[in-house]
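Narrative of activities, Objective 1.

The group set out to show that a structural description can be obtained from nothing but a protein's sequence at a throughput compatible with the screening campaign. Below is one input-output pair from the validation batch, recorded exactly as produced.
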Amino acid sequence: MNNATVGKHPCPECGGDLQWSAAKQALACPYCGTIVPLSQAGEGVGDGSAGVIELDLVQALASLQATPPPLPAAQQDGPLGLLQSMASTPAAQRGYGAQPREVQCQSCHAISVFVDGKVADRCEFCGSPSIIDHQSLGDAITPQSVLPFKISDGQVRDSIRKWYGTRWFAPNKLKRAALTDTLKGMYLPYWTFDAQVAARWTAEAGYHYYVTVSYRDSNGNTQTRQEQRTRWEPAAGSLQHFFDDELVPGTVGVHPELLAKIGQFPTTSDLKVYTPEFVRGWTVERYQVDLRQAAQRGEAQMQAQTRALCADQVPGDTHRNLQVQANYSARTFKHILVPVWLVSYTYGARSYQVLANGYTGALAGERPYSAWKIFFAVLAGVIALLVLLYVLGAAQ
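Output recorded for this entry:
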């Protein structure tokens, strides 16, 4: 992306910088309220198709081999390792296309990027006040595309209130608190990987059958029963499969178990070409899982799925000794941003998060439990059981 041409789509009424509005599903001016549909925003603003491109993964990983010698293992996940992974990326393909400010949390270590002057006094992810300015060792690789917010903050607030209302064992104090006041909309970094796999597999296919066997029961009488047996036969086959947008998160700020629960993002169909208008006014998390690490994780995910697909092809009722030989080709990748709504709060000594998919609205959350509510619920159950036993005894 040419950084000299991005970020130049001012409001046609007042000249202010346009921002993406989830509620309006259009670009909106935060100063005068003017709404500008994407189709009217002018050349360079993502319209969802032609500009979303895949980059050659093999070529990119090969270029990383030309960077300085590998760091010790203890430093590979740190900022120097990240700098090394970006060393061969041209300057025109780095940055977010606007003047960002980066801060890093000293508690959860997430790096937040604020575009065009937005600031924060607490971490957007864990609520910690221990944040410091982050001096970039190098601009992050520019996202190729973005999935804009589709669910508005009002919709998410209603969903979160309903979710809290059904947490029966949550402390009363938690239910009374206006926790949605901490709601933040942010873009998380993801990597997507495509690949064509050609695999051959061999296995032993098991076919169940049943035989009648005799046995003596506890009284010494002869009885019969059906017992399962398995006949094993050699089997072999092949598989052709295309992996389209295998997702690998680059975030460290969001709890991974929550991210897994809010469902997939429709990156194969609804991505827009990245421009700063989509992220201006929102928080962007800078990735800390670099391309090399993400590619390894993506390949591991593909290998596991390839094995499962081959296992599904084995005939019979069961199988054993499955061996898979797979070759991956046409490997490409993208760096993308996906939208989430996040509530973070501290209760007692622990930090909790509630996360919503900013495109589908799917929600998952963490919450504390009230020991007193659990105690009284168990006590009520015991009392009910004793009453039932008393009534049954009296009836006899």
